[in-house]
Amino acid sequence: MQAWLCDNPVGVEALTWKNLPTPTPGPREVLIEIHAASLNFPDLLIVQNKYQIKPPLPFVPGAEYAGVVQAVGSEVTHLKPGQPVACLSGTGGFATHTLAPAALCMPLPPGFDLVDAAAFIMTYATSYHALIDRAALKAGETVLVLGGAGGVGTAAIQIAREAGAQVIAAASSEEKCALCREAGAHATINYSEHAPAGTLRDAIKQATDGKGPDVIYDPVGGDFAEPAFRSIAWRGRYLVIGFAAGPIPSLPLNLPLLKGASIVGVFWGDFAKREPQANAAMLQTLAQWYLQGKIKPVIDRTLPMAELPQAYAWMGSRQVKGKLVLVNPR
């Protein structure tokens, strides 16, 4: 097998493409032949030693991938060789093969494209858990999706629309706003027209006829968080997804008091560990939505697995719309 190996987490430039022995699965593991793996923001942080999870060295990055089971461990009963799966195991994806905990593998129904599957679990599970579970989104409510053109943003737009919400998406260019509308947003706000961030609040108010959004989905953080929160509707829910902009905002706590609003943390990874049955049911629902054509990952582009450094560079340019996916030759 071949894999991108990180033995010194100082950045992407330290990764090396190496030949390694193909491993044998342990009792609760499966060996997966990887067809495709998506690039997510944590994949950058982990090779820079900035992620909250720090795997022992050396490790193969790549949190999310899809492929076909080649071999199963002695205690694995729900998977079998030849079965297509998607997996979000945190590491191992940027390779031709990997060992994965069987419990973290999502069996794929017939007709589920493996490139789509590689870009599915993290964004759609996070967005569904956030909007449906944590925010208890109701039909007819208004959702504002910040960073709407990214992977989780486009997934959130699709899920909120499927839930019957009115969806407003914010993005950093007119091209990205157009993508948000294609993904299902009813209206868009171009960040670049509201720098400094002070006028963003006015734009949100205008887009919601003065009421403000009932739910704000924020995977970005940074300077736009406070003006967005100041626009929230009475009893609104502000979903803290992540901080792609870098800085972690500090919100004045009088703001939720004045709006009767809630700041709601969203940590899908821990939810999946603590409530595995609820998570499995959610993934099954999402898989059915995919097969019914209700949701579909937005793929910016696919690149050969050997071009991972170029994929990292493209992600760092902030030009990615949806997800980047690395594919192995078949």
TrEMBL record:
SMART domains: PKS_ER (SM00829). Gene3D superfamilies: Medium-chain alcohol dehydrogenases, catalytic domain (3.90.180.10), NAD(P)-binding Rossmann-like Domain (3.40.50.720). Residues 11-326 form the Enoyl reductase (ER) domain. CDD domains: QOR1. It comes from Tepidicella xavieri. This is NADPH2:quinone reductase. GO terms for molecular function: oxidoreductase activity; zinc ion binding.
